[in-house]
């Protein structure tokens, strides 16, 4: 049986991997156990957490396994129309905190400093009912809920309307036209996600939970003053599918928010505005087989094309998958 102590030990393992790969956290821990690589020196591949690990962290397993939470290997289709498989059952996992569901779907994500990073989504949370005993402020579920709310996953929904104009206000029950549809759906994003991987993430967020946070450019961003402020970002990072600057760092998003050029919106926790959280595990070190041969990349493309908005993700993914190493410059 997994204990709270074991859970913290697992968290320390992630901390150590993070230090080696991303230099984001300083912790101590034992080597990871999950293994799917014939090479015993290969890095671990992404497996979903075991049921008892979710429950010991204060999650309601019935909610986690419900269709609205879209947990891999439970209610996400295994095979896509193009033949790729979102997940496979892999008996080579030996970690007690994981199950045998290996996730092949890899998400392109910028970390807080704008670096290319890869994550695996294990599921989403439709509403706060997924946290057990949330009405008790001293429950494990309440503690996990607080941790989940402290780590933001920035999504950038498309703002360009069918008529070519850029909407700058979110859609609501009363605002239904010329507005931004707040959705985390892949095909509705203008740019890649940015995850706020701050220095405590690997030590505190044992379930790798993230609070969905939508970013939209405000009307002020399209004034002469706003365009002057945004110009360096477009020059440095390029433009997204809307033709607006790509933002890759959390500090930039926060600074532009403080200047009134960007608005950050978190959906209601009751699920009335869509999913509130995502269970998304960083591949701390994607080299040496962590990007498996049957994995595939999910990244934002320009509408109506297969051209990625940020092609550096596909380039690095291909190198990691074929050689086990990042591409050289």
Describe the structure.
The structure is a single chain. 23% of the residues lie in helices and 17% in strands. The chain has a 6-stranded mixed barrel. Strands 1-3-2 form a 3-stranded antiparallel beta sheet. The model is unreliable at 1-35 (pLDDT under 50). By secondary structure, it is α+β, with helices and mostly antiparallel strands. It has one domain (4-323). It has helices spanning 4-21, 51-56, 61-64, 140-149, 201-204, 224-237, 250-258, 312-323, and strands spanning 47-49, 87-89, 98-103, 105-110, 116-125, 152-155, 193-195, 209-217, 262-265, 277-282, 296-298. β2 (87-89) and β3 form a beta hairpin.
Number of helices: 8
**Structure class:** alpha+beta
| Biggest sheet: strand arrangement | 4-5-10-8-6-7
Into which percent range does the helicity of residues fall? 10-25%
Number of domains: 1
Distance between the termini: 46 Å
Mean pLDDT score, rounded?
88
Cα Rg: 20 Å
How many strands, which pairing sense, and closed or not: the largest β-sheet? 6 strands, mixed, barrel
Shape category: globular
SSE series: HEHHEEEEHEEHEHHEEEH
* Extended strand count: 11
Task: Report strand %.
Answer: 15-25%
- Uncertain runs are 1-35
């Amino acid at each position: 049986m997994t204990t709270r102590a074991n859970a913290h030990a697992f968290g320390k393992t992630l901390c150590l991997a993070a230090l080696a790969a991303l230099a984001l956290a300083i912790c101590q821990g034992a080597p990871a156990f999950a293994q799917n690589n014939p090479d015993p020196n290969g890095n671990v591949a992404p497996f979903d957490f075991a049921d008892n690990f979710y429950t010991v962290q204060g999650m309601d397993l019935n909610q986690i396994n419900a269709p609205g939470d879209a947990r891999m290997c439970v209610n996400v289709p295994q095979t896509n129309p193009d033949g790729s498989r979102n997940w496979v059952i892999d008996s080579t996992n030996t970690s007690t905190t994981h199950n045998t569901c290996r996730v092949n779907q890899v998400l392109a994500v910028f970390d807080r400093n704008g670096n290319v990073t890869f994550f695996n989504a294990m599921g989403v949370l439709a509403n706060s009912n997924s946290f057990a005993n949330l009405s008790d402020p001293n429950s494990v579920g309440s503690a996990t809920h607080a941790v989940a709310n402290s780590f933001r996953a920035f999504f950038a929904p498309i703002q360009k309307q069918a008529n070519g104009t850029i909407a700058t206000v979110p859609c609501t029950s009363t605002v239904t036209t010329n507005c931004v549809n707040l959705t985390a759906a892949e095909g509705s994003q203008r740019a890649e996600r940015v995850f706020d991987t701050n220095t405590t993430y690997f030590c505190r967020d044992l379930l790798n939970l993230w609070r969905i946070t939508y970013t939209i450019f405000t009307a002020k961003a399209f004034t002469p003053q706003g365009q002057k402020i945004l110009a360096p970002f477009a020059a440095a990072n390029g433009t997204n599918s809307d033709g607006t600057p790509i933002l890759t760092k959390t500090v930039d998003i926060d600074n532009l928010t403080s200047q009134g050029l960007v608005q950050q919106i978190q959906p209601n926790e009751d699920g009335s505005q869509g999913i509130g959280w995502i269970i998304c595990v960083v591949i701390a070190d994607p080299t040496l087989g962590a990007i498996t041969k049957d994995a595939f990349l999910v990244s934002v493309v320009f509408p109506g094309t297969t051209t990625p908005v940020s092609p550096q993700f596909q380039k690095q993914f291909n190198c990691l998958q074929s050689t086990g190493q990042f591409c050289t410059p």
